[in-house]
Amino acid sequence: MSVKKYLLSRDRRTAMEVGIFVAVTQVFTFLLVFYFRISEVTYLSFIPVICTAFFFGEMIGLFFGIAVATCFSPLLIDLSGHGSPAWVIRAFGYATVGLVVGYLGNVLRHYLRFKENVRVTDISTGLPNRQALCDKLTELSASQISGHFAIVVIIISNRKILSETFGNDVTKSIFNQFKDKCAEFTKKMNAEIETYSINSDQIAFFFRKNDENDLESKEKFEDSLMSIAKKNFLHNGFFIHADSRLGIYRFSDFSEANFGELPLRYAEEAVDIAVKQMKDLVVYGPSNLAQNAKRSKASDILGEIDLAIRSRWMFLVYQPKINMATGKVNSVEALIRWNHPVRGFVPPGLFIPQAEQSTLIENITDFVIRQAVLQLKLWQRSGIYVNIAVNVSTYNLLQPNFVNKVLNLLKEKDLPPECLEIEVTESALIADFQHVLDGLNRFHDAKIKIALDDFGTGYSSFQYLQRLPIDYLKIDQSFVRNLGTNRESKEIVKAIVDLAHSIDVKTIAEGVETITDYEYLNNVKCDIGQGYLMAKPLTSNAFVSWYSENNGVYTPPLATKVS
Ligand code: C2E
Ligand code: CA
Ligand code: CA
Question: Which of 228, 367, 421, 436 has its CA at a distance of 20 to 30 angstroms from the CA of residue 266?
Fold first, then answer.
């Protein structure tokens, strides 16, 4: 136990504790005297008094000071032989030192205790806080204890409204009633419960059972908690409905997967899921753990994105988009690839969605657009004139200088804006529609073409179609892939094409893999096709070879004439 912990652990000490401490310090002092052959022992005999007073407070300090002085002072005068002051005066000195040091020790103790309290207590409810629970879990992890444990995190979703209506102490009142009701059912389970207020609207219970029987069966445990949560709470004579959502994590040891504060984080994640999916209760299970591992793998990799861009581990591949009426290459879509020196190929699905949640997408898009524009310039020099499409995320569109940056780049490379297309997904629109729309309008005004990607999978709204300055609708692969087998997909694709044409928007079908798909799409007058049938995404050299071999015109393999 550290000195600080010992200082804070209790106010009162047993006589035995004090006795042992005094004896040890005395022995230590005598050893010092004899080892160093110190003749002037008078001052050294202050050591036990100071130490004892510091650890046990002013009363014991005073008492011990007087005791030492009374017992040793007359003796010490003779031992030192230096004609020390009268022992009465020295006794007074010992007592004063004991009193003062004891007092200072107490002040320090109170200060440390206050600091510790602030660190581990939630001021508004007076309950131990999140830090206290983390400390507890870390302590248990270190002792490798096993048993039956559960962390239950409860969020009061309507806390804000309740506070506005009934005052701020309503949360405290709900938490306390919850705690009391849980304590009752815990008693029946023969378990222990600890309550923590981990956030202004969240409370956590730590259930613990040390015997071989588990906490109640999963269902019974959940039912008991739910029935408490569903009942009304009483506050200042009013019945209150707290809109509670519960996240539960049960575990039986503090192994690596449950180390430290991890169990709390799992329960918090469960409650987040409950809120997002509007469920009353979510139990964190193995599938969540697996997802977590995947996510943390993706998070690991995020830190390497900048390095990957600088080290040229990231590069672009290009997939042709074919004008279905003429077979000519209309444009190419630039798709990012990451060849990691240790992990190998990292698919965009593993890092793009994560990067889109952070500012990292800005670096990626900057890199992609710069590379794409440079590539276009190089192709033009070798006589290949195609447009290039890049994928752009919501975050990019929300940056006020994004459009100017792109236009300046094109200007710098002496390329007309018409040679660039941007692809935005439907989900980009729901973030901040007005700002995204402003960004798109500026692209449109600058004559850069816009495609609405993955159309039909997200939150398609005809309102968007009416207001967006789009040139292309990109029909999602999920519809195209099923064209051969699914009648509904056929009808949907046809309807999208007709709808787009009726508002002067062209259509692109992505994921065209078979000649049957190609023919059907051509038949329903889809304008552009993109997919493995025509070409997989190709490196720049492979694209040049493909383009030269085909003379820039794609011919379907079994070119059956479609009427
Ligand atoms: P997306 O924009 O919908 O890109 C189309 C994806 O479909 C590409 O996957 C492409 O390789 C794949 N694909 C094309 N034709 C076929 C086909 O016939 N069959 C099948 N099964 N797949 C086909 P990829 O390259 O893995 O990209 C996945 C997603 O990652 C992209 O979906 C896009 O959302 C994102 N992404 C890729 N590159 C970038 C980028 O540079 N910036 C941003 N923001 N996102 C990117
Ligand atoms: Ca795309
Ligand atoms: Ca797509």
Answer: 228
